[in-house]
Amino acid sequence: MTDFFDGSEGACSICKTMAEDTPGGMHHTGCECYCECDQFICDECRLIDEFLTNIEHWQNGDDKEWCLTCYNDHRLEPLIVAEIDGRLLANFSSPHEFNFNNGEILLGYSKTGARVNQLALDKIEERFKGIKGAIDKYMGGYEMTPAVWDELLRVTDPDFEPQFDYLIVPYPVLKAADKYASAWYERKLVLGKCRTISVADRGTKAAHCDEFFKAAI
């Protein structure tokens, strides 16, 4: 049977209010229990405001609630948009710049930025029985995540600013979006804008400025 205490061991792990004074119930040594202040905890930094009811929460793509400080720290950078060969192209998440065969460039994002690090797909790891019965693992591809899908829907909305013609995405994102999008209007919005580059020169890795790959709508 668990022993409960009335001393500091019985305080809420966050606000340190004594358990018997809160509706959260008694606490025991070593646990991480919370009183009603749990609803004010930031899911990222696990801290609360000095005045519990004054904390502001912001929703992210994974249905977590962040305090304003964490939200600002993790907020995605604005889309980088450039006019390439008469079209407005937007970089979705690549840290690498795109060099086109007409000399024009679409810049990349910082490798330490939120857009590069948060807009990543889930890796699918599959297993199979290999030689001599050993179980081998290999990469089975990528799977869409709520954060990536929400951002795709957000930036391809007709009212989104800045406007652009094509959204340049990595090939795995295009493939995952093609598999994930089921509703016709989602396919029209997202797949209608998403493109991957077509390499024009494998030596310089320059991309065609007027040719792109797309998924069928």
Account of the 3D structure:
The protein has a five-stranded mixed beta sheet. By secondary structure, it is of the alpha+beta class. Helices cover 19% and strands 26% of the residues. β5 (98-99) and β6 (105-106) form a beta hairpin. The protein has helices spanning 68-74, 114-118, 146-155, 171-180, 184-193; strands at 57-59, 65-67, 80-84, 87-91, 98-99, 105-106, 122-129, 135-143, 166-168, 194-201, 206-213. The model is unreliable at 1-8, 19-30 and 50-55 (pLDDT under 50). The chain folds into three domains: 1-36, no CATH class; 41-75, no CATH class; 80-213, no CATH class. It starts with 56 loop residues before the first strand and ends with a strand.
Briefly characterize the structure.
By secondary structure, the chain is an alpha+beta fold. The chain has 5 helices and 11 strands.
Helices and strands, with pairings:
Blueprint: E1 57-59, E2 65-67, H1 68-74, E3 80-84, E4 87-91, E5 98-99, E6 105-106, H2 114-118, E7 122-129, E8 135-143, H3 146-155, E9 166-168, H4 171-180, H5 184-193, E10 194-201, E11 206-213
Parallel strand pairs: 4-9, 9-10
Antiparallel strand pairs: 1-2, 3-4, 5-6, 7-8, 10-11
Average pLDDT figure = 78
Distance between termini?
61 Å
User: What best-fitting shape do the alpha-carbon axes yield?
Assistant: globular
Radius of gyration: 24 Å
Main pleated sheet: 5 strands, mixed
What share of the residues lie within helices? 10-25%
Beta-strand segment tally:
11
Percent range for β-strand residues: 25-35%
Number of domains: 3
Structural class: alpha+beta
